Amino acid sequence: MGWGRWVPWAAGLGIAAHDLVQRRHALLRNFPVLGHGRYLIEAVGPELRQYVVAGNDEERPFSRDQRRWVYASAKLENNYFGFGTDNDVEHTPGYVIIKHRTFGRTAPAHPHPQGDDSVWLPCAKVLGAARGRRAAFRPDSAVNISGMSYGSLSGRAIEALNRGAAAAGCLQNTGEGGIAAQHRCGGELVWQIGTAYFGCRDEQGRFDLQRLKDGVAAAPVRALEIKLSQGAKPGLGGLLPGVKVTAEIAAVRGIPIGKDCVSPSRHTAFRDTDELLDWVEMLADETGLPVGIKSAVGDLEFWTELTDLMTRTGRGVDFVTVDGGEGGTGASPLVFTDSVALPFRLGFSRVYREFALRGLHEQVVFVGAGKLGLPDNAVVAFALGVDMVNVAREAMLAIGCIQAQKCHTDTCPTGVATQNRWLAHGLDPTLKSARLANYVLTLRRDLGKVAEAAGVEHPALITTDDVEILDGQTVARGLGEVYDYRPGWGLPSGPDQEEIVALLRKGRPAPS
User: Fold this and answer.
1) Which stretches make up the Glutamate synthase domain (predicted)?
2) Cβ–Cβ < 8 Å for 423, 415
3) Quick one: residue 94, left, alpha or beta (phi over 0 = left, psi -120 to 50 = alpha)?
4) What is the pTM of this model?
5) Which whole number is the average pLDDT over 462-471?
6) Minimal CB count within 10 Å: which of 49, 332, 451, 455?
7) What's the angle, vertex CA 93, arms to CA 87 and CA 94, rounded to 5?
């Protein structure tokens, strides 16, 4: 016991001696022992700000209020907020206001304000119908899970998302990492084909059509998405650190175990827009599936050329997924996260304009991604012309993500974005799949209720006239004016509007 009292002093003296001798940190040489407190505070700074310091609407990318709404929705807890908004509505330029109607053509479907969490909200368009694809279909959910690869996310997380997608009746995008066993737990898939062609590549890394067809035959794939770029790192290829490349991931992707997996920044199966359209038509003809593209938005030259070629040649994509430059689940250099590619609303409106000016907007299903898993953001996207929204980080929150922002370090504390077996084992796919389904159903319910408040049956029927953007206390501009939309833009075609209204009034068909 006598010696025990001297141990802390001896340890302190040892640390002080080390600090005085070392040359890497001037702070520690000048303030031995005490200087370590600064590094400790720096290390726990994000947690202190997240849980103690920051206000309800200060944090990014998702504020405390936004996370609370997702968590409560996923757990079927009370997701209401009391005592009015704490947003600074009067002094926030760009603040969105959705205008309700005193009298609308739709009546409340449920007497309780929360409605029915099993609300059916199908896509207002039939995917692939305009181009006569053999496997054209109407997606059963206007809210779907965005592309997140097995590798970036743990196998348990992918399984939770897939089981949750099956329960909610929505689609899961595979991300560019190929189709794993965890993608075959009941949920239907959109197979994303990236620049490295994982899951459909030969030994040299080139695209292999037969392997693609074999993969389609072996899994519930409903559509193919060619990823040209993504909001998190537009213009860059993906990077999966070698520490994350397990034997199972290597087998799914067709790559060596334990080595950094680098995706090229460009495709090799086609070299320009004309060849891209040839490739789209070939994939659709060989598989019968609807085929689309995913891209962040930068230079508009590509979109002008794409729509011109579609108009002149009759070839075309079945859907376009526009990813906002706000950044997503992929890790990237800070400059790409912060400053490369347009944010969603500006990027999408410019792309939509190119299609609308050529009369193509009613022939394409538009999908939006980039913080659209929050009802207010999603409503604006629908008003601008989106037919479906994809959710990624919000889905991660629903299955346990705490916004630790350690996705790129393989140390995700909740087991969502890591291949560390110990960390991943804490994620229960069965429990978390139920929470993912709850979140998707709640988001669909809230979108349906907002549409009802706006006097229409479906959020895709909300127009740019129903949304205003505030610019201080005295000025507000209509959404169509802000983004230079013409009357009628942002809506499905007349026949599509009539069909979706008829479907919703008839009610969800019984399972076959």
Assistant:
1) 140-456
2) yes
3) left
4) 0.88
5) 94
6) 49
7) 90
